């Protein structure tokens, strides 16, 4: 497909205001994460014991594609993305380390209002085995490039799903509590997102008009 410079620039311009709202949503989810960790009495994500558990489960490889991790090419990964659609929290069992490529590719699923392939973001990402999506699916194409052979690709994804599931089972209590409050979170997050969008639009328009008026006054 031919690259369209104009469309790419238009997307970037539209995204500017929503980035502010998304940042506030992330801040709210982090605050809820701290409260839930304290309430359930589990060690925080920053605790050495949790780091050891993550390393014990996944070693120094990406938890999705199994590529070796490097300092400049690793990213903190939330199995359920910390956004207004997935409502993931920064809690034990939902945080590990992935390569930057898988972390970036998974965002397509994380930012979908409704998932089709699986009930959670991480499971959906690992369900793109080219058997259920259209031939234009970019995530399926990503996995085909990683594992060109169908059988090898499907086996790898199946193994990755089991490994992640086995890891998350150890944190079933806190993950269960997070699931219970998703209904409450959904309403609060949507309210915050809309309020921030409206505030940003109104303030930007008002301040922009003010600056333009001052520019006109200068001649």
Report on this model:
It is a single chain. The protein is mainly alpha-helical and 219 residues long. The protein has a domain at 20-171. 63% of the residues lie in helices and 5% in strands. Strands 1-2 form a two-stranded antiparallel ribbon. α1 (5-40) packs across α8. The model has no long low-confidence stretch (mean pLDDT 92).
Q: What is this entry, summarized?
A:
With 219 residues, the chain is mainly α. It has helices at residues 5-40, 48-58, 100-110, 121-125, 138-146, 150-169, 172-180, 182-218, and strands at 74-78, 95-99.
Mean pLDDT: 92
In angstroms, what separates the terminal alpha carbons?
47 Å
Low-confidence stretches: none
> Strand order of the main beta sheet, please?
1-2
Q: Main β-sheet, in a few words? A: 2 strands, antiparallel
* Share of β-strand residues: under 5%
Count of discrete alpha- or pi-helical segments spanning 4 or more residues = 8
Helix-and-strand structural type? mainly alpha
Measured as a percent range, the helix fraction is 55-70%
**Global Rg:** 20 Å
Q: What labels would you give this structure?
A:
219 residues; mainly alpha; two-stranded antiparallel ribbon; 8 helices; 2 strands; 63% helix
Helices and strands in order:
Layout: H1 5-40, H2 48-58, E1 74-78, E2 95-99, H3 100-110, H4 121-125, H5 138-146, H6 150-169, H7 172-180, H8 182-218
Antiparallel strand pairs: 1-2
Helix pairs in contact: 1-8
